[in-house]
Amino acid sequence: MDALDQLVTDSPGTVIAVLAIACVGLLIAVIVLARRTSRLDQRLQGLTRGTDGGSLESILAGHIERVHAVGRDVDALEARSAVIEQTQRKALQRVGLVRYNPFEDTGGNQSFALALLDQDGNGFIVSSLHARAGTRMYGKAVTRGQPEGALSGEEAEALRVALASGTGTAKAG
Fold it and tell me: For 101-157, where are the E strands, in sequence order?
């Protein structure tokens, strides 16, 4: 301690100059830290902008809850989509239409064979024969692309067109 007292007593100007430089250095450090703190505060304000002033933790918790809610919604939509996909397999979606003139004494192609099938090739064929005396209609069931009975040429063509219009696995036989 005596040595320090001796140094201060012998050269007070040097000690004052060193302390002044130290104070200026500390003042510069305080200014730099204050600017950094201000910038960090501005960034935090940017992160929490548009909120009710809640903490960043509560804001992130709210966002995480929304992400989980979206996940639950996606799961529900996925389940509904699976049901719809299963149901739509039974919808009539494959169509084949052949128009023709079976009798030379009638005008135009007013007779037709219409095949309506689901994705698996199940459905029916409706045939209409138009003549001067009247129109007759016939129906034949189709299971997995196979008709229940013999088909006319036009009915077979309508079935072929319907089976070709889909991507199912059923084939005409």
Answer: 111-117, 123-131, 134-143, 146-147
